[in-house]
Amino acid sequence: MARSVDPAQRTIVRDSLAVGLATGTYGLSFGAVGVSSGLDVAQTCALSLLVFTGASQFAFAGVLAAGGAPLAGALTALLLGSRNTLYGLRLAPLLGYRGGARLGAAHLVIDESTAMSVTRGSRADARIGFLTTGASIFVLWNLATLLGALAGTTLGDPRSYGLDAAVGAAFLALLWPRLDQPLPRAVAVLAAAVAIGAVPFTAAGVPVLVAGGVAVLVGAFAVRPPSSAT
Amino acid sequence: MIWAAVVGAGVGCYLLKLAGLSVPERVLARPLVARIADLVPVSLLAALIAVQVFATDDASLVLDARAVALAAAVGLLVLRAPFLVVVFGAAVVAAVVRLL
Fold first, then answer.
1. Confidence class for position A230, pLDDT limits 50, 70, 90
2. Greater pLDDT, A12 or A213
3. In this structure, are residues A193 and B12 in contact, taking their beta carbons and an 8 Å threshold?
4. B70 and A168 in contact by Cβ < 8 A?
5. Across residues A2-23, what is the average pLDDT?
6. Greater model confidence, A195 or A5
7. Helix (H) or strand (E) holding A74
8. Helix crossing, A83-95 with B31-54: angle to 10°?
9. Distance, in angstroms, between B25 CA and closest chain A CA?
10. What ipTM score was computed for the predicted complex, to two decimals?
C-alpha cells in the first residue's frame, strides 16, 4: 500500500526547501571570501564540504585574511562550532537517530536545520524538517561555494535580493509560536539583547553562543514554574 | 599547513556536532537538563535573529533595510500569514528599501 503524503508534511518540505535556497546561496559569498583570504579553490571547497557550518568557515577565512596562522583559524572555527553541540543536545531525543543514521545526520546539524526541526510536534515531522533543510543546504552551499570561489567577487551579492533579511524573518517565524508564554518570551528578549551587546566585542558566531548561556542560566535558576516565581 | 588546518577544523567541527547528538537519553530526561534544552532553541533563535538583522560583517550594529524587513515580518506574523509569505515578504521589503 502506497503511503499518502500528509499535506502538513508537504508544507514542512516546502518551507524547508525555501530556507535551504535562501541559505544555500550564501555559499557564493563564502566562496568569494575564501579565495580572497588566501585559500585556493580546493581548500575553500574542502571547508564547505568538511566543516559545513557557515560561521566557522567565515571565521577560518577571516583569521587567514587578517594574517593569522592556519591553526588559529582552525581553533576559532572549533570554538564557533561548539554551538552545534548545543543544537545536537536538543535534537537527539527529537530525531532519535542511532548508529549509522546518527553518524550521517551529525554532519547536517547546523543553525537552519535545527531551527526547522525543533519546533515540530512529532519525530516524523522533525526528521522531515531536519533532513530537507540540511540536505538542500548541503548541496546548494557546496555548489555555491565552488561557483563563488571560481568567480571571485565578480558575482552579485545575495544581499541585493534581500535574501539576508529572508533568513532573519524565517527564524522569527519559527520562534513566534513560543512567544505566547512569559518565560520563553523573557528568555528570547534577554538572549537577543545579550547577542546584540556581544556583537561589537566578539567574532562572528560568538554572540549566539553567549546568548545560549541565557537559556542555561534561566533553565538552571527558574526552578519554580513562572506563576510562583518572584 | 593550511591543508592540515582545513582538515582538522572539518574533523573537529564534525565531532562537536556528533557529541551533541550522542548524549544518552537518560541524561536528557533529567528535569534540569530538559528545562535547559527546552529554552536553548528559544535563546539561540532570538540571538540568531538579532545578529542576522542588526550586525554587519565588520562587527558593528546598524539599523538598515533588514530592520524594516523584520518589522514587516512581525506584521505578517500578527496577520497569521503562512511561513513562505513571511520569509519572502521580508526579502521583498528589504530589496525594495535598498532600491529607494
1. very low
2. A12
3. no
4. yes
5. 86
6. A195
7. helix A70-81
8. 130
9. 7
10. 0.85
Q: What is the CA radius of gyration of chain B?
A: 19
Q: A174 and B45 in contact (C-beta within 8 Å)?
A: yes
Substitution target in B1, B35, B48 with the highest count of A β-carbons within 10 Å is B48
| Cβ atoms of residues B59 and A223 within 8 Å | no
Q: For chain A, what is the mean pLDDT?
A: 86
Could A105 and B21 be called an inter-chain contact, meaning their C-beta atoms sit closer than 8 Å? Answer: yes
* Degrees, nearest 5: CA angle B2-A54-B65: 130
Name which of A14, A4, A6, A10 is nearest A136 in CA terms.
Answer: A14
The length of chain B, given as a count of residues: 100
Longest dimension (CA), chain A: 61
Cα B49 from Cα B58, distance rounded (Å): 17
Of B4, B10, B46, which has the smallest distance from its Cβ to A188's Cβ?
B46
Residue pointed to by grid coordinates 591543508: B3
Answer yes or no: are the C-beta atoms of A208 and A67 closer than 8 Å: no
Specify whether the CB–CB gap between B22 and B29 falls below 8 A: no
Which amino acid is it at A112?
A: E
Residue A90, all three cell numbers: 536538543
pLDDT of residue A158: 59
Sign of the CA dihedral with A35 first, then A38, A40, and A43 last: negative
> What single-letter amino acid sits at B47?
A
| Averaged pLDDT in 10-residue chunks for chain B of 100 residues | 95 96 84 82 86 84 93 96 86 90
pTM score, whole prediction: 0.74
Neighbours of B26 (CB within 10 A): 8
